[in-house]
Amino acid sequence: MCDLMPAAQPAEKIGKMKKLRRTLSESFSRIAFKKEDSGFDEICVTKMLSSSCWGWDSLIKPLDTIPEDRKVQRTQSGFDPFEKRGLVKRVHSENNACINAKSSSSGKESPKLRRHSSPSSVTSPKFGKADSYEKLEKLGEGSYATVYKGKSKVNGKLVALKVIRLQEEEGTPFTAIREASLLKGLKHTNIVLLHDIIHTKETLTLVFEYVHTDLCQYMDKHPGGLHPDNVRLFLFQLLRGLSYTHQRYILHRDLKPQNLLISDTGELKLADFGLARAKSVPSHTYSNEVVTLWYRPPDVLLGSTDYSTCLDMWGVGCIFVEMIQGVAAFPGMKDIQDQLERIFLVLGTPSEETWPGVHSLPHFKPDRFTVYSPKKLRQACEISKLGYVDHAEELASRFLQCFPKNRLSAQAALHHEYFSHLPPRLWELPDMSSIFTVLSIKLQPESGDSIQVCSKSKATSNSKH
To answer: Which controlled-vocabulary keywords does the entry list (predicted)?
Structure first.
């Protein structure tokens, strides 16, 4: 907003006009454009030419936003503000100022100058445009979206295109809106990067960085359990990404191997935030229709809708056990009742003593469940390998607690003894730095079905993949 000043005498007015014109000409000749106050209002525009307001600084845009042809014209002609009144309105419209003054020549609004562009780049591919990406092959299809491998015509990089089909009567799926809005604010090397969003009448396309496989496919390729050192690196990265999201009060709510992407170098990235939710304070209740059955915690299976980051930590425990032993920790085959039975068979059937408040959960009926005593995790697994890796069973048991509040947090887990062999430098890395920037960190070759023991000497299988 410019301050209004009293009308000057004719001689003073002419002097001021000449001085202003000289100053502006020198400024434009040096191409020293400076943008200051953009709050330039209608009063200032109408009063400007009668010396009541001199808001010229607010008309000048930064150098990098002015097309080359405009820059040349201004430096050659010196720019006379009194002869180019139409440009006053043109420049201000770019600054999003609300100006209703009419052009003295045509009375029509002048077109906006195209930012960061030149006449030669009109047809160049740009971000945010559907034709800026080339589909290469289909990677997968879900109930409302299809994922393609693609290539950016802007920079030539490979991308993953998640094309969400829009129904006229239903509009944009809420999960897609939530995924896009959350990922825009999450910048971490262990979280998949959202490059671009393209919206058309028929589709909404989310453009992600391309990562060639996921943990589920990786484990299928190397059955029988992964190399213990690789399990440690994958888990550390998972906890690192989760700690980052949890500190921002965001729950993933759908942790499973299919949603953990693995790059060529072994970098793990959290993906598919369609069910993610920002956890506000004070606490609200949420849907219990979250998390794939095998990775769903017992509190949610029993109907709890009041949960926090502990929801994700149960999934971490299930994935950890599955990476080590090669099979799911609790592979329910029928329904929720069967899933709960498998959990209680290992961890023990809960009671008010072991789980305060369990009797108040909607789906907990004591007479529906067999009473089991808790066991050690290694005793419960068909081919358990937890006992062969230092501190692995203790850490897994800290995640797999029926009572939600007893589960270890992601931040605390990063400092567990299980990770004591890793270089201290890993805990000092910035959010956007991969653990593989530390020279001593690298994936070990997998050996299929055979188990390689980290610090104990009893490897039992010698089969090869």
So the answer is: ATP-binding, Cell cycle, Cell division, Cell membrane, Kinase, Membrane, Nucleotide-binding, Serine/threonine-protein kinase, Transferase, Wnt signaling pathway
